Amino acid sequence: MKTNNPSEVVELSPSYRIPLFLIAGACALALVSLWLAGVCALLGLFLTIQTILIRLQFTDEALNVLRSGKVILSFPYSEWLNWEIFWSPIPILFYFREVNSIHFLPIIFDSKTLLDCLNKYYPRERKLYS
């Protein structure tokens, strides 16, 4: 986790857990089906590249998506309706819904910090009364 000012900006650290799992799974799948292994390996490679390039940054007002250090998307909390992290034992997918759209992101960043930031910037109690 990288912070410029702890009360203003939190940038999530990358996590290569899912991409590496997919690449390892592709090696195992190669014994069964080369086609399936190729698809799994390509997805793992794609997520590895995204893990290198993409960062999530929480500010007091919005969740920002950065690519190579530049903000490419911003999602103000005022437009959020709901969020969820799927599969608690090993978090693999982050979902959040805004007024006009739904977003799914693979968890290619520190999942504990993600959950801490979600609870800080858009807590569950807030969702119930929005």
Could you tell me the strand content as a percent range?
Answer: 25-35%
Compute the average pLDDT: 90
Total tally of structural domains: 1
Structural class category: alpha+beta
Share in helix:
25-40%
Identify the CATH class.
Answer: Mainly Beta
Instruction: Please give the count of helices.
Output: 4
CATH architecture: Roll
Q: Please give the alpha-carbon distance between the first and last residues.
A: 29 Å
Q: List how many beta strands DSSP finds.
A: 8
- Strand arrangement within the widest β-sheet reads 1-2-3-4-5
SSE inventory with pairings:
Elements: E1 2-3, E2 9-11, H1 17-29, H2 34-53, E3 54-59, E4 62-67, E5 70-76, E6 80-86, E7 93-98, E8 102-106, H3 111-121, H4 124-129
Antiparallel strand pairs: 1-2, 2-3, 3-4, 4-5, 6-7, 7-8
Describe the 3D structure.
By secondary structure, this protein is of the alpha+beta class. The protein has one domain (2-129): Roll (PH-domain like). Helices cover 38% and strands 32% of the residues. The chain is built from 4 helices and 8 strands; from the N terminus they run E-E-H-H-E-E-E-E-E-E-H-H. It has helices at residues 17-29, 34-53, 111-121, 124-129, and strands at residues 2-3, 9-11, 54-59, 62-67, 70-76, 80-86, 93-98, 102-106. The strands form 2 sheets. The protein has a 5-stranded antiparallel sheet with strand order 1-2-3-4-5. Strands 6-7-8 form a 3-stranded antiparallel sheet, with no helix packed on it. Strand 1 (2-3) and strand 2 (9-11) form a beta hairpin. The two termini are 29 Å apart.
